[in-house]
Amino acid sequence: MRMVMFDSRRYDREAFDAANASGRHEITYLEPRLTPETAALAGGYPAVCSFVSDRVDDRVLEELHAGGTRVLLLRSAGFNHVDLRAAARLAVPVLRVPEYSPYAVAEHAVALVLALNRHIHRAHARVREGNFSLDGLAGFDLHGKTAGVIGLGRIGQAAARIFLGFGCRVLGYDLVPHTGLAGAPGFRQAGLHEVYAESDIISLHVPLTPSTRHMIDDAAISRMKPGVYIINTGRGALIDSMALIRALKTRRIGAAGLDVYEEEEGVFFEDLSNTVLQDDVLARLLTFPNVIVTAHQAFLTREALHNIASVTLDNLTAFEEQRPLVNAVRPSG
Ligand code: NAI
Question: Ligand 1 pocket, 154 CB below 6 A?
Fold first, then answer.
């Protein structure tokens, strides 16, 4: 089937061409993001493939549908950027990749903890300038510390296991009881109050929903241990960025590792190095020595890219063959 892919990068093309080696599907790769302004480019393609940086709202879906789009393929697990109600109204199935490598994201979350705690980013910059002093680079042992994992789904559980491997005590919070880690020495599912009050590190692994938007705000931060590390590889809007900045300034938060940012759209994934950054909040975050920002790259491993491409094309084949759409996402309620 003919599929057009928005916001495609070289690594997407390589992975999808490899997964489509049989040539079963005809893929057109476009660089622009999918927005109301670019949706017309999909005219005549029955399948559209989009990424988390696209904005698939009501208007975009109407335009896609009018142009002949019959299926929307998300090459992501998250789907908060898609108006599922509009898609359902237009009878355009939305198919995602529910799991491609929880390890990729969990390992990146822990990489942020280690880099921040052992000041790897600062040490690297220093030695390149010929400064071999260790002043200000003291970290702490992860062994024996408490890691709070918020969201115990696929990624949260993978992160919890890594923290357990370091000898951390892990307190996990989720809406539902999870048995995957039950009985693992050092792990306990706990209430949010307890996770906030006892954790030295808090790592966020919940989806962005109305109830998780800005869950890390002034009130939540005030319940946390002073000096806590906050790691966000979930979605940017889980954190109220202004509250985070306030708490970093007072040192209430000891460090932040951010792979996602609430206003990342149009900034992350782009090379803006020849322009002036317009987002003052992001610019402020980038000034802190104890903040590391990565541009939504937690998913970016070879294994994840391979799985994303093959599951996306399996989803397309299932649609074409009118088989059950096991990876369809539907509006809740
Ligand atoms: P999952 O669906 O396996 O797990 C999510 C967990 O969060 C579930 O156990 C669910 O019960 C829990 N949850 C939902 N609402 C909650 C609430 N209000 N309070 C407490 N727990 C709640 O999802 P998975 O695969 O673990 O992914 C988690 C999130 O990670 C995704 O939704 C996505 O936003 C993000 N993600 C980020 C990537 C990156 O590159 N930075 C890549 C892939 C996912």
Answer: yes
Phi and psi torsions of 115, nearest 5° = -65, -45
**Domains of the chain as residue ranges with CATH:** 2-100+301-320 (3.40.50.720), 102-293 (3.40.50.720)
pLDDT at 172: 98
Query: Does the annotation count 235 as an active-site position?
Result: yes
- pLDDT-derived band of residue 179, with 50, 70 and 90 as boundaries? confident
Cβ atoms < 10 Å from Cβ of 58: 14
Active site includes 178? no
Q: Residue 332's pLDDT band (boundaries 50, 70, 90)?
A: confident
Please count the other Cβ atoms lying within 10 Å of the Cβ belonging to residue 60: 26
Among 264, 320, 321, 323, the active-site one is: 264
Q: Report pTM.
A: 0.94
- 214 catalytic residue (yes or no): no
Distance from residue 101's CA to the centre of ligand 1 (Å): 13
Does ligand 1 lie within 6 Å of residue 77's CB atom?
A: yes
pLDDT at 149 over 80: yes
Nearest to 66 by CA among 80, 48, 79, 85: 48
Task: Please choose, from the candidates 114, 213, 99, 215, the residue with its C-alpha nearest in 3D space to the C-alpha of residue 158.
Answer: 99
Find the length of the chain: 333
With 80 as the cut, is the pLDDT of residue 333 above it?
no
Out of 205, 235, 252, 262, the active site residue is 235
